[in-house]
Amino acid sequence: TVVGLRMGKGLTQSELAKAAGMQQSYLSRIENKRHTISNGNIAKLAAVLETSPLLLRTAFERQWDLIEKA
Length: 70
Known about the structure:
Layout: H1 2-8, H2 13-20, H3 24-31, H4 39-49, H5 53-69
């Protein structure tokens, strides 16, 4: 999941958002499937997390599936 990738890098939601040039509240809404994410923002987050945009998109989709099942 995205949270797993973020925590694996030792980053808080706020730290990741700041490093990617976005608001923490926006990142929170994305992580919780309350807002969609553009390919550009996927690329920014992937760069900070040192992963590929495709892997990050897959991580978001996995996380959103878990949210829907909860």
